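[step 3/7] fold_predict: job queued, chain A
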Amino acid sequence: MNEKTSTARAHTNIALMKYWGKKDAALNLPTTSSLSLTLKEFYTDTMVTEGREDTLLINNLMQDPTRVHKFLDFLRAEKGDFPPLTVVSKNVVPTSAGLASSASSFAALTAAVAHYNDWDLSLEELSRLARRGSGSATRSFFPGFAVWHEGHDDQSSFAESLPESTMPIALVVCEVAKTTKKVSSSDGMQRAMTSPDYEAWVAKSHEQFDVMQAALAANDLETVGAIAEENALAMHALNMSATDRRFTYFSQMTIDIIAFVKELRKQGFLAYATIDAGPNVKIITRQDQAEEIKEKALASFRKLKVEIATPGPGLSYIEENDFADEALKINNEI
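[step 4/7] structure written:
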């Protein structure tokens, strides 16, 4: 085994227009295009190096490598064989709690493997490959606002950056729970698609998508927030009306925070809620109102962890890191 390594950093993204359902599960083709904001404060660093077998360590804890191994085998079949890899990741974001940790994780992994193997790939190509590991990972390669085109086949479903925006957007992230969600995103999507309202949600999402892009171009943050909230709440309503094992990601605190956001609007704040596949609520607001909303949230909800997130950068590679010793330890233990 050699000592060659490659480390990539990808930031998580929050979908303002949701991806919730697949028209082709094998290719991870979504039923709708989606639109997201990459976040500066939450990210994943992933290093790969040759190992004895595909192995995964996240935040210093050994993990079941099955999903990563399957994805690495896909890359081997797609781009050419490469040796088993030791994958060491550090998540600066809760895992599996509805803050899109899989997006930053699979984007960083895809980029690290491509760099390790000296593949000369565009961001569009990396996005397309990462889609097979996690759909939302397509968007984590790009700074600021990005759009993932639903496409109609493997080549046409990828993400790209939207024009640079000066919109003063911020998210007040209310972390209701760090625990792993009981219903995975993949399972949740399958169940949601059995809702009698699903096709109507898809049609409405297509309409909202055009309005959202126009609002972004016009720096109309209020319209962006209003559409994002409507789209997200309608998505979660699908889960509750699914004919196949209806469910919800909401906790009582989730519901209480949504009511809190509505009260903020009555008080004159620009505040709208968006929620991914988990109980955590992100409050869309202006950067100059974020700190006051954070303080109000902390005063209203005991033990709630609240952070402010702002637009973040795209993919980067890290030359200096402290991953190598961890990888060597893993390889020696296998």
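[step 5/7] annotate
The first strand starts at residue 5 and ends at 17.
The first helix runs from residue 66 to 79.
exit 0
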